[in-house]
């Protein structure tokens, strides 16, 4: 969401994935979850209808406007201890958890260990 907020235009999914340092598939899982929650709007590129363009929703902007600068500083500090490879690995793992969580939602049984 920070990448979309900083952008001056809607961004293609591939550009967001690249900025996150993760795969297109993982970025799509995260974007799909954020879109379901109303934080990201997904549109189609008029020039290439296969491309998905992403932007922050007004709901996301209102949510983040209500957060304090201290919140942002704390979260930034969390990620500052990770190098680029570690951030990519974290994004990949979180996307995997989101994917597994979506598949298991509504079920009380725990996922089998891998």
Question: Please, could you describe this protein's structure?
Answer:
By secondary structure, this protein is mostly helical. It has a single domain (2-104), classed as Arc Repressor Mutant, subunit A (Orthogonal Bundle). Helix content is 59%, strand content 11%. The chain has 6 helices and 3 strands; from the N terminus they run H-E-H-H-E-E-H-H-H. The chain has helices at residues 2-6, 13-20, 24-36, 58-65, 69-80, 84-104; strands at residues 11-12, 40-44, 52-56. It has a 3-stranded antiparallel sheet with strand order 1-3-2. A hairpin with a 7-residue loop joins strand 2 and strand 3 (52-56). It is globular. It starts with a helix and ends in a 10-residue tail after the last helix. The relative contact order is 0.15. Mean pLDDT is 83; it is low at 104-114.
What is the fold named in CATH at topology level?
Arc Repressor Mutant, subunit A
Shape: globular
Note poorly predicted spans: 104-114
Class from helix and strand fractions = mainly alpha
List the domain count as a whole number. Answer: 1
Pick out its properties.
mainly alpha; Arc Repressor Mutant, subunit A; 11% strand; 114 residues; 3-stranded antiparallel sheet; 59% helix
